[in-house]
Amino acid sequence: MSDQIKFIVDNLNKEPFRKNYNLITFDSLEPMQLLQILNDVLAEIDPKQVVDIREEMPEQTAKRMLSLLGILKYKPPGNATDMSTFRQGLVIGSKPVIYPVLHWLLQRTNELKKRAYLARFLIKLEVPNEFLQDETVADTNKQYEELMEAFKTLHKECEQLKTSGFSTAEIRRDISAMVEEKDQLIKRVERLKKRVETVQNHQRMLKIARQLRVEKEREEFLAQQKQEQKNQLFHAVQRLQRVQNQLKSMRHAAADAKPESLMKRLEEEIKFNSYMVTEKFPKELESKKKELHFLQKVVSEPAMGHSDLLELESKINEINTQINQLIEKKMMRNEPTEGKLSLYRQQASIISRKKEAKAEELQETKEKLASLEREVSLKTNQTSEFDGAEVLKGDEFKRYVSKLRSKSTVFKKKHQIIAEFKAEFGLLQRTEELLKQRHENIQHQLQTVEEKKGISGYSYTQEELERVSALKSEVDEMKGRTLDDMSEMVKKLNSLVSEKKSALAPVIKELRQLRQKCQELTQECDEKKSQYDSCAAGLESNRSKLEQEVRGLREECLQEESRYHYTNCMIKNLEVQLRRATDEMKVYVSSDQQEKRKAIRQQYTKNIAEQENLGKKLREKQKAVRESHGPNMKQAKMWRDFEQLMECKKQCFLKQQSQTSIGQVIQEGGEDRLIL
């Protein structure tokens, strides 16, 4: 707290306040004096705050200061409950409230001046929506917002100019040099005018020279425009040739290629373009931006001398040594996981470099291809210009191209069919060989297994039995099933069903008991659930009622608290006013004349008398001025007429002197002089 007061006192004793306080006198100030000091500091930040707080109500003073502090974004310490104490302390001039505000304001006076200045123009006036329905009000509001945005941009430009590296001394020297050059040019123009005035028809010649200059400027403009149009024509011709070449290549590719190859080529181009757009170009753009930022930083810095360069070199060497030490420490540790990661990182970096190199090579090849296509187009144009060359033209060339295309398509189709047949034949031949080999292997394995088991020839006999059984089944199917087989099957099925029923009878009995028990439990659960829901609804309604009551009581408490603080402030203000009134009565009733002179009533009566005397003198002065106004205006008009008359005589004299002096020979001191 003592450091805070010391800082406040030191800043108040400086310019522009010059209060001449010390710690004791400042600490002994009354609340009204503290409020006046705070108001003076705010007036230094915002000149609109220049007010004598003795002539203002305390509520208005507090409201004005709070609004300005809100604009300056001052945050008082504490929470919302402390805000009421802050307002109360600001009204009564409490030291624990005033001191932090003064300390905060004096710390950043220049910044707050700028903020207060901007607040005059950037705090938007909120217009209600019902007023914005009017067209004039809406247009005015729109114009107001546009002016606000224009002010923002102009202020930013002004700040950039202030912070830029332009030297005012250099600008002043340039301005003075330009002024001198302007004066010299004016003198030269005057001398040339004097020389030209002696020539006959100089006005006509000046007019012709002016027209010549205008025509030359127009000629230069037209020449520049002609050059621009030539450049545009050249670029358009190049663009046309490039588009024609692309069209030819696309037609050729569409005629010769399949949809699969076209899709594959397009996918490759999309991958390449996406790589260039997402990876390569952003990296190059980022590197260029870094270089530009570095160059701008270098340009904005002042010129460096030899000592500065030596210092930078020493810093670079120190940083390099530190980097080498860190690398050595890292190599000394030699952790295996970091070694593996370093290998992966090296591989990734190598792959990325290879990818970038291949992308650059592809870009270069594309550029070479475009240049070669341009050369081919130029060569074709040159060959078309030569005479004697047999070149197919028009319909003949179209028929020739169509024949070639039809033959090439037929050839490609036949060649494709032959290739498909060959591939299919090879595939079937290979599958046949594989199946034969697999069958032989299986037969060999089966024979070895039979020999081990002592049943050699089993597979052969099994095959014979399967063949005989197949023949028998076919015979049985041909005969059909008899009725006896059907009855036996039915008996078997009935016996199986009876066995299953006898096995499931006890399980069904247990299942019935469990179903009954389940129904009882579900009924009991539903009853309990309904009881719980009714109880929860009652408790929820009671809770909501209690919350509403608590909310209402809190609001009443806050209202009563605010009313209490307001009445407390009003009581303190009334006590202060009552104390002032009692002091005034004591001074007015006392018999001492010196104390009576200190009374406010005496001071006001004295001031009223002085103001009345001053008003009387001013009225007398006004009367004298009114009486002398007419003669004075007449005299001033006579002086102006006299001045015009003398100026006219001067012009006539100069004109006469210039006319008589041109072409005259004057003898002076025995010498003859010819004046032109």
3D architecture notes:
- The chain has 676 residues and is mainly alpha-helical.
- Among the domains are: 1-123, Actin-binding Protein, T-fimbrin, domain 1; 485-589; 591-627.
- It has helices spanning 2-13, 23-27, 31-45, 58-71, 80-92, 95-107, 109-122, 129-132, 135-163, 168-197, 202-256, 259-300, 306-333, 336-385, 394-453, 458-479, 483-589, 593-598, 600-661; strands at residues 665-668, 671-674.
- It has a two-stranded antiparallel ribbon.
- A hairpin with a 2-residue loop joins strand 1 and strand 2 (671-674).
- The radius of gyration is 55 Å and the shape is flat.
- The mean pLDDT is 79.
Question: Outline of this structure?
Answer:
With 676 residues, the chain is mainly α. It is built from 19 helices and two strands.
What is the secondary structure topology, with strand pairs?
Elements: H1 2-13, H2 23-27, H3 31-45, H4 58-71, H5 80-92, H6 95-107, H7 109-122, H8 129-132, H9 135-163, H10 168-197, H11 202-256, H12 259-300, H13 306-333, H14 336-385, H15 394-453, H16 458-479, H17 483-589, H18 593-598, H19 600-661, E1 665-668, E2 671-674
Antiparallel strand pairs: 1-2
Helix pairs in contact: 1-6, 3-6, 4-5, 5-17, 11-14
Mean pLDDT: 79
pLDDT under 50 segments (min length 5)? none
Number of strands: 2
Q: CATH fold name of one domain, please?
A: Actin-binding Protein, T-fimbrin, domain 1
End-to-end Cα distance? 88 Å
CATH C-level category of one domain: Mainly Alpha
Rg over alpha carbons: 55 Å
Class inferred from helices and paired strands: mainly alpha
